[in-house]
Please model this.
Amino acid sequence: MNVVIALLILLTALVSANSQSSEPREKHRAIYAPPPEYPLGARQRHWTGKGLFLCSLRPDGTVSSVKILQSTGHDVLDQAGTSALGRWKFQPGDVKGVKVPLTFTMSGVRHRMSGAVISD
Model:
């Protein structure tokens, strides 16, 4: 009987710990987000690509640095993304970084801040 009670207590503790660790993480919103320029040479060559960038943030929400986590496949598009993201501003707070996906297509540049997640 004591073994059954001990197992129930252990299972309850495990379920409780798992439910607390699976809480959704809060997304961080950009308050100033000028789009990247699509370089003329890249447009003329019909270069497209998807990239993922990490913006390191200061406490005031400004971007201190931008790191390329996944290249667009073209240095000129990566540079355009890095340059634009360096000018972005996010809500001030304790968040240290935000991942931003960028997509360069022949119809323009799209960023999906709704998909941005806070990095660890």
In short: Helices lie at 2-21, 40-44, 75-85. Residues 1-25, 114-120 have pLDDT under 50 and may be disordered. The domain at 24-118 is CATH 3.30.2420.10 (TolA/TonB C-terminal domain).
